[in-house]
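[Q] Does anyone have a clean structure-token version of this?
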Amino acid sequence: MRLLNKMIVFAAVAVGSAVTCAQAKSLVVYYSATGYTKSVANMIAAYVKGDTFELVPAVPYSSDDLDYNKSDSRVSKEHNDPNREVKLVKNSVENFNAYDTVFVAYPIWWGIAAWPVDDFVKHNDFTGKKVIPVATSFSSPLGQSGELLASMAKTGDWQKGIRFSSGVDEKTVTDWLQSLNFKQ
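[A] Here you go.
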């Protein structure tokens, strides 16, 4: 049996691209303030047959908290605090080592990843994982959000991310996944 396992591994290495992302175990980690990011995360997970893990702040955000047009809203105050720290109910995933690919999905806040994502990124070791940032926003670009998360993580093979507009359709998401060689 050991010899058979070695032969299978050798065959997979020999053909290189024969082992595609579809065979890798994928996780979609996401924070969604209003539901748009959750929708995209679920589309990705369904297509790659991956698991999802929702990042839930220990102190949930209300709609008033999320009103960035008000200087006294929670997100505005947090944005202006260089020492902000948003704790999560749970910042680690059981069997995280089992995943080869991790999608990190988040809304863009002030040109960067929504800060509830920071707690997860800081508390996990992404060594040996392909990490793909996925942002949602009505109008803001992806910017340097992925690079900033990679810098914060210090480990992992962080890929170029993508930004989807809020309300993106499933075909756009699956076309992007296909462009990354994910197969259904």
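[Q] Thanks! Anything notable?
[A] Helices lie at 2-15, 36-48, 74-79, 116-122, 145-153, 170-179.
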